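Quarterly update, task 2.4: flavin-adenine dinucleotide-bound model.
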Amino acid sequence: MKIIADANTNINMLTDTHAAEKTNHSRQNVLIVGGGPAGLATALMLAKRGWTNITVLEKRATADYYEPDKSFNYLIDGRGQKFTDFLGITDKLIEISVPSKEFYLTEIKANGSKKTFQVPFVDPKQKTAYWIPRRAFVLLLYQEIERNWQDKITVLFNTTCVEINKIAQENAEGEQLEVVSKTQNGSVTKFEPQLLVGCDGIYSIVRNTLKEWDKSTSDRFEMKCFPSPSSKLRYKVLSLPPNFPLDNSGEEHAVCTMSYAVRSAFRDSRRTLSLGLLPIKNPDEFRSANIIRLPNHEIWKLKNSEQVYNFLEQAFPQLPIHQIVSPEEAARFASSEGGYFPPPQYCSGLHFELRHKQVNQGMGDRSSTVGVVLLGDTIHCFPPDIGQGVNSALEDVCVLNEALSKNDDDISGALPLYESLRFADVKALIRLAQIAFPWQYNQAPLRTKLWSVNTLLRFLLNRLLPQIFSPPAFFLIRNYQLSYQEILVKAQRTTQILYVLGLIMISGFLASVFRLVQI
Ligand SMILES: Cc1cc2nc3c(=O)[nH]c(=O)nc-3n(C[C@H](O)[C@H](O)[C@H](O)COP(=O)(O)OP(=O)(O)OC[C@H]3O[C@@H](n4cnc5c(N)ncnc54)[C@H](O)[C@@H]3O)c2cc1C
């Protein structure tokens, strides 16, 4: 691949000078927008398949760039490990993460009492899952590129994709893609990829461009949003120092591999809150305390560090707040916008094709496909209730790999196959995100209790009559051998049986009341 720089306009054109001689897949140059988990995983998958000329555009400065409000933990389960196994990096993942089978939670009440228990939703029959901070996981993928695939993959940090155009091909009837990127210092680069991969998350420029191109004929690239009890919640992260003291005496300190739920002294719904900390392997890393509450909560009204300190000191008298929240962190927390959990959403178009006519001198004209494919949050996005954001993104990559295998890396066959293999699962995943575990944030205590009763009932019925009743959907999701569609069918079948049993019981009750009245 050769870069031709236009000195006058500071525009670079990337062209493939060896197009005619190479085999089909290595001839194709690939541009991936977004260097998050989906983007880097796709680059690695393509490189492992023998593709070359793969460029990733990432607007952040580095792979492990620290964004406090994006410093949440992933739980890489069996579904995500299908990808790490494919790449041969599961051992490295295990080294730097905390296994779910050692997942203990310490609850610290406002009076300082502490209780530690093993989190009950770990299924010993399932593959161990691994807790890892987002940035550590993205760095793991990036280090794999640096170690083994540097000759095939180039990652351009601080580079934002700003425009995507369809342009007419010179001397031919087809169309070509033109992707424009901009670096932080203002330099502009233009790419002409054969395959464009959209992995740029929920606000994807790639998907939005396809939506514009396609809007007169379909709404395939429009995100369809669905309601969820957790989608209106707001979140912010408070960064706490490693091994911070857990009490005012300073005797006990936080252990990195332990998760914590620190309960507040407040009881009223507008002030009560918990600090939720998930386990991490690195003892020197800052701990992220997640705060997730409804938009009318008092915590969102704090304007400066003084107000942050006042609120936290009243809320958490069991913690030495001034020792564990630095003035810089209090100021950052007050000024941070945080975020809102998105509604569960998906789009039905996972790929797009342009007809591209390639002129092969002496061999006559040959037509080949220029394609766009979408993966990860770009096509499905939802609140983090079911811990499937990263796992579903990695599964997308495995499905694309399967589609490429079945088509000998010819994208004209592989991209439609990817869409047909994946779409029904994407739809089921979004339905699962709506129903599986949306009440876990105690945003409506009564609904949370009802949800717990429902979960317990399904759990017990499954233990008693496993042929008839399935475990709750949240447990089934951990079974990576089941597709999201299969999980949804099982959960819905149990719901239908419960409805029928409920109806029979109500009818029986009414019939006996009727009989009593007649006597
Ligand atoms: C508060 C919160 C908590 C979460 N918790 C969990 C959890 O516990 N478990 C879980 O599995 N998932 C969780 N998720 C979801 C998870 O983060 C995503 O599902 C996952 O990161 C998807 O990966 P992705 O690569 O598709 O997208 P992203 O991680 O969003 O990556 C997209 C990348 O594209 C880059 N980018 C965007 N636009 C451009 C552009 N124009 N040019 C260049 N680069 C661009 C971004 O900088 C980013 O690096 C959570 C999400 C949120 C918001």
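Highlight for this quarter: The first helix runs from residue 24 to 27.
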